[in-house]
Structures are given as structure tokens and as C-alpha cells.
Amino acid sequence: MYLSEVRDAQQRGVALGIPSVCSAHPEVLRETLRLSSTSGIPALIECTCNQVNQFGGYTGMTPADFAGLLRRLADEHGLPQDSLILGGDHLGPSVWQAEVAEAAMHKANDLVRACVQAGLVKLHLDCSMPLKDDGPGGPGNAKIAERAAQLAQVAEECGHGNLQYVIGTEVPLPGGATGDTEELHVSAVEDVRQAIDMHREAFGRLGLQSAWDRVVAVVVQPGVEFGDDFVHEYQPADAQDLSQFIETQSLVYEAHSTDYQNPQSLREMVRDHFAILKVGPALTFAYREAIFALAKMEDELFTSGERSNLIGVLDGAMLRYPGYWEKYYRGSEAERALKRKYSLSDRARYYWSEPEVREALRRLRSNLQSKRVPRTLMRQFAPLETEALIARGVPFSIETVVSESISMRLQGYFAACRPGT
Predict the structure, then answer these.
(1) What are the start-end ranges of the E strands in 92-158?
(2) Rounded to two decimals, what is the model's pTM?
(3) How far apart are CA 242 and CA 253, in angstroms?
(4) Domains of the chain
(5) Residues 77-91 pLDDT 10s
(6) Which residue from 270, 51, 262, 257 is spatially nearest to 170, judged by alpha carbons?
């Protein structure tokens, strides 16, 4: 599998990497598959345990649904099925933290089993979260490794010897930090060494040597993060010790929260053995930017009674169902209102499937298809996308503006993962 090629190339000093797109948004998935088909780099697409699980997750999809969607989209884009790598991110008891360990791990086992049976082959095993009866301080490193090994055993029992694993977790929680910090702490080498050793020993106690040989990466904090309106850029000097340490292991690093890193930083990360670059909210943020730009064009062309009022409809859905953003966005009401629309953490991504939002999107599309959109409006509200479309001779449409917005963010990841670019 390509992930093994990435690991082996990195061990030889070749800066080969792979983007890992962690999203279930159809437009993000389509653009990922399109870029993969033209870049020669397989499409690695992952779902988190919150997005997709045996109970449907917030997308309403099971692992089988998610895998089926991706395979259909790959066929539509002419991407060979063997160039599509499906993965599960943060697989473990995260969704069931309010339950005691026995019940939570039982559901985590079922989740892993469903993922493997659906054809997911890259499994990030993450049991770092505290469960109801873990007591103060959470499960501890040894228990984290033990639980991860138990999940690997379940996967191996229903797999075909083709599964590849990622261990470890990152700080803070997935989806971006909740506040800017004066200093972001890069993972200590000794902590990473201990995590690897404990997982190796836990796998060994269960007779999972073959599975351990297929562990390709460990998740660490390389010093990158983002929040509502800040981005911590990668600093190679801060991660030098980590970079040198992993050269002594038969592993690479998987870097989470690389969203919004500039292209040069992404290239430096791959060079320094952070070979799997996870990205998610930045791509749905790009989708939202494009949709908002199109809504602003609509405002200029249609009367108030004719407009989709998409921006207001989306915010209304977020206010009616605040569970996905309320505990993440802090500040005054005005500050939280701004964050609902524009935060880099992009909690709006949870609401595009709400019926009223889907209807507003349909009306926006219908309106913009019914009138010619002047190029001046396009330049005003989507200047970068417009210039790119004009340069390539691609006609304006809601689809091409959205595609271009996502592509501009995603291209840097594919470019960073090719040696010599």
C-alpha cells in the first residue's frame, strides 16, 4: 500500500508524503478525488468517529455508507479504486466518554469492526480520552496502549492482513484549539518514545506482531495549531529533535491540525518526516467562503424577497441547534455571532445538511443560474477564484467557484507531498 511506500521512502531520506483529507462534505470529497486523479498521489480520505459510526454519526452515515459514497465518487471522477485509501480517524471510545469503560469499549470494538468490514484500511487507534470510571487523570499511558491493542485485535480478526495502523493522539482535541496560547508545546521525544514502546508491548501481549509491523505512523504535536482567528505556523527548529528521533524508528509522523499552514510550511513538514498531513476544517472553510461570496453576489442581483438569504438561514440553523458550536465559541454575543460565520474552526460545517440550509443552497443555485453574473461582481466577491477561472478559460458557475476555492487550499498539500517540489 502507498502508506508503506511513504514510510519506506522517508526511511531512505526521500521527502514523500500524502495528504489525509478528514471530511465527509461531498464537495470537498469531489475536489480531493479530482486532484488525486491528476497528481498521481492516491486519495487518502478519512472519517472521524463523530462524523461516521455504526449509529450514523453527525452525517447520518455508517462506515459502509461512507465507503460506498467514496467508491461511487471515485468512479465518477475516473479514479481507480486502488488509488482510493479509506481511513478512520480517532477510532476508539471518544463518542461514548460518558459511559463506563466496558460499555464504551464494546461500542468502540463494534465501530472498528464496522470500519474494517466496510473496507477502511487505515485505522487511527486513539483511546486517550477519559471514560466515566477511569478516575482522576484519565486512563494513563499503559491503559491507552492496552485499549488500542484491543481494538487492533478486533480489526485483525475481521481483516485480511492488509490493514495499516496509526497510534497516538494530538493536543488539543480535534477541530482546532479553543483559544490562542502564548506558547504551543511540541511533543517531547521521551513521551513519543514511551508511547511507541507501550503500544509495541501491548500489541505483543496479544500476539499482534504482524499488526505491529503494519503500524506506519504515530501522531504527535509538531507545533502547528489553529483556532478561531489564529494559526501557529510550523517552526522547523522547534521540531528538530522529533525529526531526528523518528529516523531511528520504522515509522513516520502523522500531523493533525495542519489546516491553514502555508505551502512552504507543508513542504518543510514532509521533509521533517511529518509525512501524513491531516486537513479538514480548512477545506470546509474554503467551501463556506465560496458560498458566502456567491450569496453576496446574489444580494446585488435580486430583491430581498427573491434572495435565498443563505447566510441568515445558516446562522438560524446554528442558533436552533447549538450543540456543535456553543461550547467552542467564547466571548460576547457579538463575538460569538462573528465566530459562527467566520471562525477558522468552522463549526458551520456541521449544518450544511440541515433541510432549511439545503433549501437555501438550492435557491441560491437557481437564482445565480437564472441571470448572468457580471464579471465585476465576481471580481469583487471572489477575486482569486475569478482570476483562476479566467486564466483557465473555465466558465463561471456556482460549482466552478466552489471547486476553485477548495482546490486552491488543497493544492498546497498535494504539492508538498511530491519529492522535489
Answers:
(1) 122-125
(2) 0.94
(3) 9
(4) 2-280+411-416 (3.20.20.70), 284-405 (1.10.400.20)
(5) 999 999 999 999 999
(6) 257
